[in-house]
Amino acid sequence: MRMTQGTFSFLPDLTDEQITKQIQYCLDNGWAVNLEYTDDPHPRNTYWDMWGHPMFDIADAAGVMMELQSCRKAFGDRYIRLSAFDSTHGWESVKISFIVNRPKEEPGYRLRRQEGNGRNMRYTTEPYADAKPEGERYGV
Amino acid sequence: MSYLDQLNKGGKPDGAAAKPAPVAATPEDAAETAAPEPPITTVDLKREYEDAGVRDVLEELDRELIGLKPVKKRIRETAALLLVERARRRLGLAHETPTLHMSFTGNPGTGKTTVALKMANLLHRLGYIRKGHLVSVTRDDLVGQYIGHTAPKTKDILKKAMGGVLFIDEAYYLYRPENERDYGQEAIEILLQVMENQRDDLVVILAGYADRMDKFFESNPGFRSRIAHHIDFPDYSNDELHRIAVGMLERQNYHLTDEAATILASYIEQRRGQPHFANARSIRNALDRARLRQANRLFEQDAGPLDAAALSEIAAEDIAASRVFLQKPGHNAEPVHPETAARETGPRELGEEERHP
Questions:
Q1: Do domains B1-96 and B97-235 have the same CATH topology?
Q2: What are the coiled-coil residue ranges (chain A) (predicted)?
Q3: ipTM greater than 0.90, yes or no?
Q4: Predicted confidence (pLDDT) per residue in B107-141, tens digit
Q5: Residue A70: closest C-alpha in chain B
Q6: What percent of chain B is modeled with pLDDT above 70?
Q7: Per the CB < 8 Å rule, is A59 touching B133?
Q8: How many CB atoms sit inside 10 A of residue B308's CB?
Q9: Where are the domains of chain B?
């Protein structure tokens, strides 16, 4: 099951050329571009690891693409997401965030039901990939 | 004489008015090229030259930089090559991105950084680099202090320079043969890799003294083969330096008296013979010191209200007080001008002259 998250999440994965254009847009707006990676695909997982520092003094997207390539080389079997932070006073928040790399196989999520008091049902989802410890989740 | 040379000669409106030329040239051209639009079969080089703004850059170069004839010639040739290459690409002829990495060799103060800035602008206008900014670095910015420090540092700089020009000043310091564990080698390897693989994203310009750069290239054949354009910057002649000085002062709204101009000419002549002579940079420093002396003079004279002319006038004594005139080869520290003897006791300015008694 394909994980969807962030901007463009229901489009097919962006090509490198499209990613470059998005990055250029971010840089032209003066946003700091960040790369993050994780192998815990749960949508509520907000704690992704950062790849290097935020990149805020770069003029051209090729510089960010260079980092993205080296991140893919190291963590090609994980999710990598690119986000851009706008530090303008009053905004100070992430303006765009999308996935730029995903594992080949995404096993999806298990739905768990729990009978509660009376006829109450409690539902929870957990990724199948979560069963293994971090770093071993996607076929290493 | 190259084609571009002729264009420059022909279209130049003579003097300071540079802007109207491109506009004046268009009406006839437009009639010729407007009709066959869909399949491009001909390329009007002259029009390309105007439209890309190459003319503006080259004229600016001619106007702002004094002397440097061979450098200007090389840049014009390079511009012609790039323009033709671009035209070939447009017509679908075989082309490959030309190697644009360059090396600028010459003594200090001969305008390498200034020309690099112009080069970045030129390449940007021709569409060979996307942003046209210049990132100027030295060894310290690229090479780290300990194991594992160099690669991230070098990559950081490369990231910043992407889409523009990376200008490495005194590039030969990157390579230190006397220390085989020097981290410079690591930086060189990363640089070479990016210079080869990302030729579309980045242009690298190496700069430094001619003889040491030659040695550097000898011991790093990788660099030599990846650099297509070697441009040598000659020293300025005395007359050129004098014109540079006058131009610098004019830009700061100062002017020389006739006497001061003569003194300046002999200053330049003497300064050249002394150690640590750095062409235009020495002149700029000398002028800074002259301004300081002028300010002091005005203050000490205390001649009542001063008008703009008095405030912007550099007199002969402001330059004559320089210690350059004291250092006659043969007899040491013999005051040449009567005023300088009096000034000798005053507070000393720090400057490059002072370092060598």
A1: yes
A2: none
A3: no
A4: 888 889 989 998 999 899 888 899 889 999 999 99
A5: B155
A6: 80
A7: yes
A8: 8
A9: 1-96, 97-235, 238-355
